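Worked example 2:
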Amino acid sequence: MAKTSFDVGNIPDDDFFEFAKARFATGRRRLPRILFERVLGFVDRTSGDVQEMCDAMWQISKPGDTLGDLYFERGISFVFDRENGAYAVFLKPLTDIQLRVLKALAVKGGEHPLSNAFLEVAQLTNTATVRRALTALDRTGLVYPGPSGWRFASPFFREWMRRRK
């Protein structure tokens, strides 16, 4: 039997929040709407990434906790700790130029990767070099072209790259 995939779209924010809030409540944890909105924004409303971030915040919290910004930051660190080895493996085959373009995408975003500001962050002078690097990075699956520019496949990897020295 052939595998078929299809896009189910995003879960409506209100429904997703009510579901997540109820799940946290089963463990006597309180998930404020403002924190959930921050999670949604961070992961571009991708349901699997919302679940990963909620799981991380669940893991670092305990019954009776009301989650806030500190849990968000610690949740990201929890995911980094879990994925750090994989992230390092992703970088191994990349060239210096590809790494610079990847870092610039994390810092500047992917809306204008041929702009002077992007070139400056990437420490490059030639847009053709950036185009070649983006094509190569697309083949890795780490980033892809979207309707509003280049995007990371994982918001956690994007943030890890942004914070990387």
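The helical segments are 13-26, 33-42, 47-60, 69-91, 96-108, 116-122, 127-140, 155-163. The chain has a mean pLDDT of 94.
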